[in-house]
Amino acid sequence: MSETSGMSTGPKLRAELDGVPTYKPGRPAAADGPVAFKLSSNENPYPPLPGVMESTLAAAANFNRYPDMACTGLMEELADRFGVPVSHLATGTGSVGVAQSLLQATSGPGDEVIYAWRSFEAYPIITQISGATSVQVPLTAGEVHDLDAMAEAITDRTRLIFVCNPNNPTGTAVRRAELERFLDRVPSDVLVVLDEAYREFVRSTPGEGGEIPDGIELYRDRPNVAVLRTFSKAYGLAGLRVGFAVAHEPVAAALRKTAVPFGVSQLAQDAAVASLRAEDELLGRVGSLVAERERVHAGLVEQGWTVPETQANFVWLRLGERTADFAAECERHGVMVRPFAGEGVRVTIGETEANDLFLKAAEGFRKEG
Ligand SMILES: *Cc1c(COP(=O)(O)O)cnc(C)c1O
Questions:
Q1: Atom of ligand 1 nearest to the CA of 95
Q2: N or C: which end of the chain has fewer CB within 10 A?
Q3: What are the pocket residues of ligand 1 if the criterion is a CB atom closer than 6 Å to any ligand atom?
């Protein structure tokens, strides 16, 4: 058999796939322990609201049919809710699906994609898959995006810049003045993606370091800004995979072209519409999580930890070499957290009982030194 027959080498795969980091999902709660809570994936601990559950189950009766490919009902509901034209919307299989489409629409081999690091772990993966080159700009000592350094990293090859606000996994947020100054510096042919997966958890008051802007206000007069939102976090639909972008034409149109056909199931579409209609109750639950976040943050500070301000549904502890030990200690207390080896742990705000167990684990770990 000759080399050229291909038998010995297998199908040719794109070289860009070599060494793509694998996405690490948060570990599930242990099945055998006395109590076990999963605080490792930033999910919403509340079950779906009754109305949301019912409309989703109704859609289940028809899953022999393809979903509405254009997501008509959801697009109209979103247009109404956010005051944007339907032509400025694009949906996808979670906002990660939309982010992947954004890369497909803008970037390929030879192009550069800038984002802060550490930030959302999907960015390096989807950038590498597109064939483009990641340009990672370290967070500041305060664990915040260094927007000046990011602006300085722009070259002729830059096609896309992610700004994760608030940032996953640190929870920190950039303010209006610095973000607008940054956007003013970005060339108009470079797309800036404001990833606002945790927007609903933001509580900013102008007094505390400045307002945290709503990307959907910023995008309106900036054709090179796209905003990503998701139903996975505050809305509690992580398992249904639905997210969306708000962007001007032609970016939104490019997203609709590159999306996986029928990618958003009818269950997901109907659940998202029902969730938007139940928004008052949903956001009431988000308010409870924000109150818990403040309680956990204050508890950690009282124990002596240095914890960055968080505007999301999680807290970040920079533990360096002690990261794995800390995660193991939490696990012994019945809570699974998300370790980033050698860097720190991200802990999702969950049920009060789970948060109490986490605080206890953190306190014990500090005392042991
Ligand atoms: C969770 C998350 C998303 C959304 O994920 P999907 O479930 O794909 O919508 C997007 N960006 C960041 C920063 C996230 O943390």
A1: 9
A2: C
A3: 42, 94-96, 120, 164, 168, 195, 197, 230, 232-233, 238, 243
Structure tokens at 11: 């199908």
Q: Are 41 and 26 in contact (CB under 8 A)?
A: yes
Ligand 1 mutation target, pool 232, 237, 338, 348, most atoms within 8 A of CB:
232
Return the amino acid letter for 336: M
Atom 15 in ligand 1: residue holding the nearest Cα? 168
Q: Ligand 1 atom 6: the closest Cα is on which residue?
A: 94
Considering only CA atoms, give the Rg of the chain: 21
Q: Which residue's CA lies nearest to atom 11 of ligand 1? A: 197
**Which region, left, alpha or beta, applies to residue 217 given φ > 0 means left and ψ of -120 to 50 means alpha?**
alpha
The string of pLDDT tens digits covering residues 285-341 is 999 999 999 999 999 999 999 999 999 999 999 999 999 999 999 999 999 999 999
* Tokens (6 digits) for 201: 């958890």
The three state secondary structure string of the chain is CCHHHCCCCCCCCCHHHCCCCCCCCCCCCCCCCCCCEECCCCCCCCCCCHHHHHHHHHHHCCCCCCCCCCCHHHHHHHHHHHCCCHHHEEEECHHHHHHHHHHHHHCCCCCEEEEEECCCCHHHHHHHHHCCEEEEEECCCCCCCCHHHHHHCCCCCEEEEEEECCCCCCCCCCCHHHHHHHHHHCCCCCEEEEECCCHHHCCCCCCCCCCCCCHHHHHHHCCCEEEEEECCCCCCCHHHCCEEEEECCCHHHHHHHHCCCCCCCHHHHHHHHHHHHCHHHHHHHHHHHHHHHHHHHHHHHHHCCCCCCCCCCEEEEECHHHHHHHHHHHHHCCEECEEECCCEEEEECCCHHHHHHHHHHHHHHHHHC
Question: Is 0.70 surpassed by the pTM of this model?
Answer: yes
pLDDT in the model for residue 5: 53
